[in-house]
């Protein structure tokens, strides 16, 4: 189980430290700041993003700088984060147009951002919960999950990226509750042991956080749509 830390200041008792897990950011820095205000982020709190920190939105640098500079912030690797990283490493030649725009924005400080993205884990084990970007293959041990499933999985058919078929989260029954993003939906996608947090902020919908200790959702509306989804947000 996640340990809750008591926080004291000047002899007074303050609330327990919280783990705040946030959906896909995609460079939506302004909405992130608004959401942190709604959640009332405290000094002892921890913020975890389910990945896709960048691409499609307009403030990729601001998002990455916050996660690099504030020790309370961490994230797992998303498929768009991974695409940029692989391109910088010479492992991927062609980027999608939105990925190329993000690359150009980040290029002046490429080393700083490449090093940070390279440091992101494929999943974060929180004890009672596990944070992944896309999904977990049912019946496969956490440490044996493939990077492709962790960053791209939607359904359990022959094409992991397909939206047609049995969603992985409807079948997943792992010991840890999975907190994931990647597949935007309003309201959030839910399974017996999984909670989706991508509510399509970059497409003009909302940015959502889940506070583990409170078992509670918080959200803010997007300030505007920064991109058009390839498929309808459910």
Task: Give an overview of the whole structure.
- Helices cover 26% and strands 19% of the residues.
- A hairpin with a 2-residue loop joins strand 1 (7-9) and strand 2 (12-14).
- The chain has helices at residues 29-39, 60-69, 79-88, 97-106, 110-119, 147-152, 168-171, and strands spanning 7-9, 12-14, 19-22, 46-49, 73-75, 123-125, 129-132, 177-180, 190-191, 194-196, 206-211, 216-221.
- With 234 residues, it is α/β, with parallel strands linked by helices.
- It has a five-stranded mixed beta sheet with strand order 5-4-3-11-12. The protein has a five-stranded mixed beta sheet with strand order 6-7-8-10-9. It has a two-stranded antiparallel ribbon with strand order 1-2.
- The radius of gyration is 17 Å and the shape is globular.
- It has a domain at 16-133 and 177-221: Purple Acid Phosphatase, chain A, domain 2 (4-Layer Sandwich).
- The chain contains seven helices and twelve strands.
Question: Topology, pairings included?
Answer:
Layout: E1 7-9, E2 12-14, E3 19-22, H1 29-39, E4 46-49, H2 60-69, E5 73-75, H3 79-88, H4 97-106, H5 110-119, E6 123-125, E7 129-132, H6 147-152, H7 168-171, E8 177-180, E9 190-191, E10 194-196, E11 206-211, E12 216-221
Parallel strand pairs: 3-4, 4-5, 7-8, 8-10
Antiparallel strand pairs: 1-2, 3-11, 6-7, 9-10, 11-12
Helix pairs in contact: 3-5
């Amino acid at each position: 189980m996640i340990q809750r830390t008591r926080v004291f200041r000047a002899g007074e008792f303050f609330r327990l430290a919280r783990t705040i897990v946030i959906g896909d950011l995609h460079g939506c820095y302004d909405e992130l700041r608004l959401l942190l205000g709604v959640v009332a982020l405290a000094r002892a709190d921890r913020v975890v993003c389910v990945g896709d920190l960048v691409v499609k939105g307009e403030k990729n640098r601001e998002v990455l700088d916050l996660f690099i500079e504030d020790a309370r912030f961490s994230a797992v690797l998303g498929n768009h984060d991974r695409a940029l990283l692989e391109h910088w490493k010479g492992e991927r030649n062609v980027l999608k147009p939105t990925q190329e725009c993000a690359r150009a924005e980040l290029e002046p400080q490429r080393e700083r951002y490449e090093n940070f993205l390279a440091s992101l884990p494929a999943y974060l084990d929180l004890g009672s919960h596990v944070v992944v970007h896309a999904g977990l293959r049912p019946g496969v041990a956490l440490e044996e999950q493939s990077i492709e499933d962790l960053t791209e999985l939607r359904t359990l058919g022959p094409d992991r990226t397909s939206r047609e078929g049995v969603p992985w989260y409807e079948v997943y029954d792992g010991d840890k509750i999975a907190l994931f993003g990647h597949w935007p939906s309003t309201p959030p996608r839910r399974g017996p042991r999984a909670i989706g947090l991508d509510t399509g902020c970059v497409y003009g919908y909302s940015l959502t956080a889940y506070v583990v200790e409170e078992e509670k959702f918080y959200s803010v509306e997007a300030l505007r749509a920064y991109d058009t989804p390839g498929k309808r947000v459910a």
